[in-house]
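Researcher: Quick one. four chains, 302 residues in total.
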Amino acid sequence: MKPTPAPELIDHIGWDLWRVTEGWKRRFTTQMVARGFGWFGEARGNLVQHIGRNGIAQTALAAKAGMTKQAVQQHLDDLVRDGAVERVTDPDDARRKIIRFTALGFDAMTVANDVKRDIEDQFRQLIGAAAMDGLTDALRVLIAHQDDLQK
Amino acid sequence: MKPTPAPELIDHIGWDLWRVTEGWKRRFTTQMVARGFGWFGEARGNLVQHIGRNGIAQTALAAKAGMTKQAVQQHLDDLVRDGAVERVTDPDDARRKIIRFTALGFDAMTVANDVKRDIEDQFRQLIGAAAMDGLTDALRVLIAHQDDLQK
DNA sequence: CATAATTGTCAAGCAACTTGACGATAATCT
DNA sequence: AGATTATCGTCAAGTTGCTTGACAATTATG
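Model:
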């Protein structure tokens, strides 16, 4: 006697975005594990992508990654332990320590880039080249205006 | 002298997706707080959207939300404490407890739906109606094929 | 009716953060 | 110059959102 299955759940863009993003992350992590870089997890990937070719100081890295310096430090402890990056004291400022990729770290980044391209290609195959371009453009515009709609 | 082949970071779709998704979540949470539903946080929102109008058992809810029943239980403890849902023992099965919205819970869902629509409208204004439709379609296709590209 | 499965629960632990406090160093200001 | 102020990295502890493991109560199955 209880009909009314009623659509109480709105299908919203945020939910769609979340699911696709989760799918992307899951695939990326799976692929990195499969290629022997299992220590290159999700959180570390998000951090490590801000380390440039020439290295970066921890605090600057934290700012770029949008995390506290303490959070960054904890991830870096692990990354140093796994041999992906190294901490070098800045000769110009004894307080500062520069984070730089090791050879292993560069390898991981190269593989990560390959994986990203692979996933992107599969996306493109699924929805078509035109839709893929549209998707990218739309996301870029939204990102560019992220701060405008802060409120 | 730098013989580094140096893989500089490529701009990938996953990063774009992540940033837009984060922006969406941040805005949603901010708006819910502003409208007096600060207890309706991000994790709870993801869970609560699977509670139907007629309620649902905890284990079934966990399956829908893709979490363990223990994780669900912990969120429900909070939601019960905040008066958003209630646990009712199923008359047909004394083991089972049905999770149902209270009046406050329904209010929260209504407000949440409004907020979602608002954000969606702002997105549409930014990128245009056509691009918004394309975005939604693209995301839906990718979601639909999520399992195909499991590997 | 004995055994197995399911439901919810208690407990402990882990990952990815956070805030707070602090010593070492560098920059700025009298 | 010296004294204050700011910055950098670090140690410690707490929070959130999950996880795995164990278990009693209840229902389903042989």
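The domain at 37-143 of chain B is CATH 1.10.10.10 (Arc Repressor Mutant, subunit A).
Researcher: Thanks, that's what I needed.
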